[in-house]
Specification:
Elements lengths: L4 H24 L6 H28 L1 E3 L3 E3 L12 H24 L6 H24 L1 H4 L4 H4 L8 H19 L12 H22 L6 H21 L1
Antiparallel strand pairs: 1-2
Helix pairs in contact: 1-2, 1-3, 1-8, 2-3, 2-4, 3-4, 3-7, 4-7, 8-9
């Protein structure tokens, strides 16, 4: 943890803010009759992930490494007092990361699964899937004991693999299991809501990537890159 407490908290706060963007984006692309249920799904999965990750997931992810496979310790965030407030701040930021990963696959499962199944998947992901892979890549961030991928030189600066790749593969597994949406007939969606979600997420990513620069340097380059990358991707997709 090379970042100061203020930078850590800023990173976590921007990811927290992005949950609103995820919600707007998801409800903008579904049928009108399911808007309320999907919004509630986002809220409930966030709460479940927050509780379970703090009790189990953080320890499995950042505790003392067991042969590079899984962390041990910090159950219920116990033992963080010795590391001071910086450790609690880092736990907050990583909880927001975990919630973002689960929101990614939750959006993919919208209108495909029952609420109970989605919540069960979020619970398993928060306790086992996300923390275990996170330990492989980021295990040394608190105790200094590395996971096996990290020992091989694997690097993930801002969660491209730990957060997004993990969430994407969970979504793929869920889609394969649940199959196609049963009712795909014409129905209204709310595109302005989806566009609002895009810009909220975009703003959140600018803030997060800027805050993730621990030394506060190169902010102009970071903001420019965070703006140009999705803009270029959208133009290419539109042309295609």
């Amino acid at each position: 943890m090379n970042m100061s407490i203020s930078w850590i908290l800023m990173c976590g706060a921007f990811i927290f803010f992005m949950q609103a963007g995820f919600t707007c984006y998801e409800v903008g692309f579904i049928r009108s009759k399911n808007i309320i249920s999907v919004a509630i799904e986002n809220l409930l999965t966030f709460m479940i992930v927050t509780v379970l990750y703090c009790i189990f997931g953080f320890g499995f992810m950042f505790g003392e490494s067991f042969h590079g496979l899984i962390g041990t310790g910090f159950i219920g965030l116990s033992g963080l007092d010795a590391a001071g407030d910086a450790a609690y701040s880092y736990a907050f930021m990583q909880t927001m990361f975990a919630a973002a990963s689960i929101t990614i696959f939750g959006g993919a499962m919208s209108e495909r699964s029952r609420l109970s199944a989605l919540l069960a998947g979020a619970a398993v992901s928060a306790v086992v899937i996300y923390p275990v892979f996170g330990h492989w890549a980021w295990g040394s961030m608190v105790t200094g004991t590395s996971g096996w991928l990290e020992k091989l030189g694997f690097m993930d600066f801002a969660g491209a693999s730990v957060v997004h790749l993990t969430g994407g593969f969970i979504a793929l597994a869920g889609i394969i299991t649940a199959g196609r949406r049963k009712d795909t007939g014409p129905a209204r969606s709310n595109i302005p809501f989806a566009v609002l979600g895009v810009f909220i997420l975009w703003f959140g990513w600018c803030g997060f990537n800027g805050a993730a620069a621990a030394d506060g340097q190169h902010l102009g380059q970071i903001f420019s890159t965070t703006t140009l990358a999705p803009a270029c991707a959208t133009v290419v997709a539109m042309i295609y």
